[in-house]
Structure formats: structure tokens, C-alpha cells
Write a structure and sequence with these properties.
Family: Belongs to the ANP32 family.
GO biological process, one term: regulation of apoptotic process
Largest sheet: 6 strands, parallel
Main location: cytoplasm
Shape: globular
Keywords: Chaperone, Chromatin regulator, Cytoplasm, Leucine-rich repeat, Nucleus, Repeat
InterPro entries: AN32 (IPR045081), Leu-rich_rpt (IPR001611), LRR_dom_sf (IPR032675)
Helix content: 40-55%
Oligomer: single chain
Distance between the termini: 76 Å
Number of helices: 5
Number of strands: 6
């Protein structure tokens, strides 16, 4: 039931009229929502998700109306708006009311071409620590949010933790992907039993034919 769902990934689904069918206020426990590349033009139909902490909206066609976020997802700590049609600081100003927002991504939005883009955003959104993955002093954001809270006390640990696990995770994913989808299943399905049967039959058939053929000719 939607009530228990805490993470929902709807990437690459197609939205109609700016909404995703079935995504509604019943997802009370949702903490992570990803709607990347769903042709979302506006957030007007976004349901109220009071526990939502992370929202991924990359590669859509959102150009404004960001004030909806503070109304419906007041507890957001991470927001990714990369690859949208966000052009000016006025649009982003609407995020000032997201008091818990720590990290904002605007990669590949036109706004990133503005002169003093980073300084302007940090000035405008005093509450955020990370813009496009780096803080104002160009320190990289730690990978996981759980480290975040402890990280404020001593940054050194945090950075060391963030490095290796991050790289490791990525490699992991690739391996999993390959073995789960690719080699593993094929070997089992096609590879072993199927091919062995085929080969055995072929060999037997060939022998018979060859022998039979030879005898007849003689």
C-alpha cells in the first residue's frame, strides 16, 4: 500500500499534463522520490509529501513554479533540478522557504551560465550547504546524507569516508548489473543445459548420417 512506501523511482515514465498517474497524497511516508526524464513541465500537480527528504527531478522541462515545493514538501533536504529550463535567480528564489534544504543541483540549467552563479545562489539560499555537489569553499558533498549530520563536527573524517565507499559503490553496481542481467542468466539458460543437449544430438545425428551414408555408398 502507498502508506508504507518510503522510496519511489519513476524515472523515464511518461507524464501527462504535468502529472504522473497514481502519484498522490496517499504516499504519506515517502522520503525519496525520483522523477527523472518524465517530461514534467510543472510541479503544480505534485502531491503533498510532508516526509519527503530527497527529490530528483533531473532532465525535465520545469521552468518555474518552484514555490510549490515549499508548500508540499517542506522537509526537503536534497533537490536535483539538473537539466531543466531554469534560467534566472528569480525562479530559484522560491526555494528560500525550503528551510531544511542542504543540497541543490542545477547542472545543465541555463542559470549556471550567469556570471557569479555560485555566489549568487549561496547568497540567495542561505540555508543550503552544497550547490552542484560542492560547498562554498569547493569542498565536495559527502556521498550519503547520514554522514552529513555527524560530518559537521569534524570534516576530515567525513571526507575520508566519502571517498572510497563512493567509488566502491559504483563499481559494485556495474558488476551487479552485468552478472544479474547479462552473463549470469544467459549462461544458465542458453549456455549449459541447452547447448549441451544440442551438441550431443548434433554429434549423434552426424555420426549416424555419416556412417549410414558411407555404408549405402559402399
Amino acid at each position: 500500500a502507498p502508506l508504507q512506501v518510503t522510496e519511489l523511482v519513476l524515472d523515464n515514465c511518461r507524464s501527462s499534463n504535468g502529472e504522473i498517474e497514481g502519484l498522490n497524497d496517499s504516499f504519506k511516508e515517502l522520503q525519496f522520490l525520483s522523477m527523472a526524464n518524465v517530461e514534467l513541465t510543472s510541479l503544480a500537480k505534485l502531491p503533498t509529501l510532508s516526509k519527503l527528504r530527497k527529490l530528483e527531478l533531473s532532465d525535465n522541462v520545469i521552468s518555474g513554479g518552484l514555490e510549490v515545493l515549499a508548500e508540499r514538501c517542506p522537509n526537503l533536504t536534497y533537490l536535483n533540478l539538473s537539466g531543466n529550463k531554469i534560467k534566472d535567480l528569480g525562479t530559484v528564489e522560491a526555494l528560500q522557504n525550503l528551510k531544511n534544504l542542504k543540497s541543490l543541483d542545477l547542472f545543465n540549467c541555463e542559470i549556471t551560465n550567469l556570471e557569479d552563479y555560485r555566489d549568487s545562489i549561496f547568497e540567495l539560499l542561505q540555508q543550503i550547504t552544497y550547490l552542484d555537489g560542492f560547498d562554498q569553499e569547493d569542498n565536495e558533498a559527502p556521498d550519503s546524507e547520514d554522514d552529513d549530520d555527524e560530518g559537521d563536527e569534524d570534516d576530515d573524517d567525513d571526507e575520508n569516508e566519502a571517498g572510497p565507499p563512493g567509488e566502491y559503490e559504483e563499481e559494485d553496481d556495474e558488476d551487479d548489473g552485468a552478472s544479474d542481467l547479462g552473463e549470469g542468466e544467459e549462461e544458465e539458460e542458453v549456455g549449459l543445459s541447452y547447448l549441451m543437449k544440442e551438441e550431443i544430438q548434433d554429434e549423434e545425428d552426424d555420426d549416424d548420417y555419416v556412417e549410414g551414408g558411407d555404408e549405402e555408398e559402399e
